[in-house]
Amino acid sequence: MDRTVSLPNQPEKVTTVKLVESSTAPSGVELVNLYQTNRVGDPMNLVALAEQVQTADDFIKANACNKLTVIADQIRF
Length: 77
Description:
By secondary structure, the protein is of the alpha+beta class. It contains 2 helices and 2 strands. The chain has helices spanning about 35-40, 45-75; strands at about 1-5, 10-20. The mean pLDDT is about 85.
């Protein structure tokens, strides 16, 4: 797919360019899964994921705090 183009400020200079293939399977190879990229996800999955991230964040903070408390106690005594 060749196309001739020119810049607006240089109309006398014409260049031929190759355009990218707009097929979903260029050269017969499917690059992305159309089901995965075009499906509408369940919004509750996103909420559940956010809840799990928040819980993991709370556990990490508690674990780090406990370890720092143990180190502080070891330094004091």
